[in-house]
């Protein structure tokens, strides 16, 4: 069976397509999930690193706000470096190292990460920084004394108890200057609302230390305004009672006519300058902050365990989906093969078929398996019939021989010539059947010996016709031979006479008296065609496929004497095949039959 399978239905193409689709989907899903998860992880990690950087900057800015220099900052730098796992270094503007967590001599990164200046901080990176950009922890001369702190603490307790009586739950926090501040979660109390009985003004009144610092600040502002030609009085200053500490109040004076719009702006600039100048002696000098870099502590990215788990989970999910899809595809492709395997493992006598559900190679294999099963079933039926026919063919003559021998032995009949002739005829029938079976067995086993030699086809036909002339005359059938040219065969002449003789015997049995049997030979390209045609009863179309089967007879009622043994035509086909040729039968009822042998042509001798 040779069936052309469409390319898209071929098993190899389907396997390749399935593999490519699975690979593409797996790679795409893995890439998408990895990118999405890694991007999210990177953002989280970058946010964490940025938060750590801002925390480092805030810690160092706080140190600078509470110390007049950087001496002693080495320990703070090392603690921050150990906690963040990064290198931290502080230098002056000319890169003179003030403190460094890396070993001495380690090169600095090419650029500083930030500038540490408590008098000029970023309001977005340092919560609570004032408009002037001053770190709220830089209090300088505004830090109150111990006795002032004790007095204010008592006033804070009184204020808190007053708030409690009015239904406010408050607590006390301490500002960087040491001043206590009464506040609540909304801070200050109720968004700035103070009950009348609690507003005694004592807690918010500046202490002598604060008054002195505010006076100094006011003088500095007035001097700055005078230098800029502004005749307006300096702004009023006071204490900031929030938890952020102490700072000047907003500008409160009114500009004169000749000051114009520059008055308020000039006052704000002078206030900021005076504030920084007043605090400058109390804070550390400006320093450059370097993070990471160097020869030993480079900036590195290390995902957190949670993000690592997300990436691993995404990869595992893609792998699981890939395995499931692959298993489904493989199962669909292997299911027909399993059905074939199960059918092949069944007992032979069951002749199991498998359903053909696809049009690919597996479907073709299933169809071929079914056809093979059908052929095996037919061959098994033929084998059983052949065994029965052989037993019948051998039993009949043996029974006759045995019966006549027994009655002769018992003296019932005399062994006269007629009896001996009958026994001899039965023996010949047995010999013929046995010889035919032996020839078929040799042909089936591939041990049939051929003695090839150059043979003229016309002479071969003449020899066969001469051998059967007496039988033809007895049957009243005219036997003729014809030949085109002088075709030669490379064949075993004995076996070819046997094959042609079987065809002639078959023609004589099926041709009524007055009919004709013709033997012919003709060249046909590289072959020689031998034909035996008769004008007998012919062959029905439904019988043509069976004429070369063993022990088959067109008319079941024929005996072994009138219808032959049923082995003649199978022997013809086997002998022809042994010579590398083919045997065919044609004909129709009432028009006779034609048996054609096509054999390779041979060369004429010398």
CATH architecture of the largest domain: 2-Layer Sandwich
Question: How do the strands line up in the largest sheet?
Answer: 8-10-11-13-12
Which blocks of ≥5 consecutive residues have pLDDT under 50?
123-131, 243-261, 293-300, 557-563
CATH topology value of the largest domain: Heat Shock Protein 90
Q: Helical residue percent?
A: 40-55%
Beta strands, count: 13
Quick one: CATH superfamily of the largest domain? Histidine kinase-like ATPase, C-terminal domain
CATH class of the largest domain: Alpha Beta
Radius of gyration: 60 Å
Mean pLDDT across the residues is 79
Structural class by secondary-structure content:
alpha+beta
How is the topology of this model organized?
Elements: H1 11-66, H2 73-84, E1 88-91, E2 97-100, E3 114-116, H3 146-165, E4 171-174, E5 180-183, H4 208-227, H5 262-279, E6 287-291, H6 305-344, H7 361-409, H8 417-445, E7 453-456, H9 457-467, H10 469-475, E8 478-483, E9 488-491, H11 493-510, E10 516-524, E11 527-534, H12 568-578, E12 582-588, E13 592-600
Parallel strand pairs: 8-10
Antiparallel strand pairs: 1-2, 1-6, 3-6, 4-5, 7-9, 10-11, 11-13, 12-13
Helix pairs in contact: 1-2, 1-6, 4-5, 6-7, 7-8, 8-12, 9-11, 11-12
């Amino acid at each position: 069976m040779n069936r052309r399978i469409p390319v898209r239905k071929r098993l190899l193409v389907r396997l390749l397509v399935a593999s490519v689709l699975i690979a593409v989907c797996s790679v795409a899903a893995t890439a998408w999930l990895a990118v999405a998860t890694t991007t999210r992880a990177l953002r989280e990690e970058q946010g964490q690193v940025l938060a750590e950087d801002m925390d480092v900057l805030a810690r160092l800015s706080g140190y600078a706000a509470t110390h007049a220099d950087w001496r002693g900052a080495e320990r703070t730098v090392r603690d921050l470096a150990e906690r963040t796992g990064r290198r931290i270094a502080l230098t002056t503007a000319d890169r003179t190292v003030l403190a460094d967590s890396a070993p001495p001599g380690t090169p600095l990164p090419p650029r500083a990460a930030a500038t540490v200046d408590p008098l000029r901080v970023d309001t977005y990176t340092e919560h609570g920084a004032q408009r002037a950009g001053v770190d709220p922890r830089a209090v300088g001369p505004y830090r109150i004394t111990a006795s002032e702190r004790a007095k204010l603490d008592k006033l804070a307790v009184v204020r808190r108890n007053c708030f409690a009586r009015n239904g406010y739950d408050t607590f006390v926090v301490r500002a960087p200057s040491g001043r206590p501040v009464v506040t609540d979660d909304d801070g200050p109390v109720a968004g700035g609302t103070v009950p009348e009985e609690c507003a005694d003004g004592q807690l918010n009144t500046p202490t002598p230390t604060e008054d002195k610092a505010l006076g100094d600040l006011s003088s500095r502002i007035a001097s700055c305004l005078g230098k800029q030609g502004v005749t307006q009085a300096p702004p009023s200053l006071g204490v900031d009672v929030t938890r952020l500490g102490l700072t000047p109040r907003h500008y409160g004076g009114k500009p004169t006519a000749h000051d114009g719009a520059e008055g308020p702006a000039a006052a704000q600039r002078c206030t900021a300058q005076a504030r920084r100048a007043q605090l400058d002696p109390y804070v550390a000098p400006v320093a450059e902050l370097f993070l990471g870099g160097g020869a030993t502590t480079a900036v590195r990215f290390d995902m957190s365990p949670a993000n690592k788990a997300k990436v691993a989970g995404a990869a595992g999910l893609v792998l699981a989906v890939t395995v499931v899809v692959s298993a489904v595809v493989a199962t669909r492709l292997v299911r027909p093969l399993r059905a074939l395997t199960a059918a092949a493992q069944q007992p032979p006598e069951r002749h199991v078929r498998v359903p053909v559900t696809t049009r690919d190679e597996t479907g073709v294999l299933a169809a071929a398996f079914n056809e093979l099963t059908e052929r095996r079933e037919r061959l098994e039926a033929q084998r059983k019939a052949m065994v029965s026919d052989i037993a019948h063919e051998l039993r009949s003559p043996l029974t006759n021989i045995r019966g006549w021998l027994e009655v002769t032995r018992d003296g019932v009949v005399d062994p006269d010539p007629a009896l001996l002739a009958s026994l001899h005829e039965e023996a010949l029938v047995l010999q013929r059947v046995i010889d035919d079976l032996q020839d078929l067995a040799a042909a089936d086993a591939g041990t049939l010996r051929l003695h090839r030699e150059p043979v003229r086809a016309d002479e071969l036909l003449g020899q066969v016709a001469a051998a059967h002339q007496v039988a033809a005359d007895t049957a009243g059938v005219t036997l003729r031979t014809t030949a085109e040219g002088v075709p030669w065969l490379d064949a075993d002449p004995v076996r070819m006479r046997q094959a042609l003789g079987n065809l002639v015997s078959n023609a004589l049995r099926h041709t009524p008296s007055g009919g004709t049997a013709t033997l012919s030979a003709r060249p046909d390209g590289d072959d020689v065609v031998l034909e035996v045609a008769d004008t007998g009863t012919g062959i029905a179309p439904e019988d043509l496929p069976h004429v070369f089967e063993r022990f088959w007879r067109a008319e079941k009622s024929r005996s072994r004497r009138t219808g032959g043994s049923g082995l003649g035509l199978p022997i013809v086909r086997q002998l022809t095949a042994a010579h590398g040729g083919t045997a065919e039968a044609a004909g129709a009822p009432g028009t006779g039959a034609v048996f054609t042998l096509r054999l390779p042509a041979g060369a004429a001798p010398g």
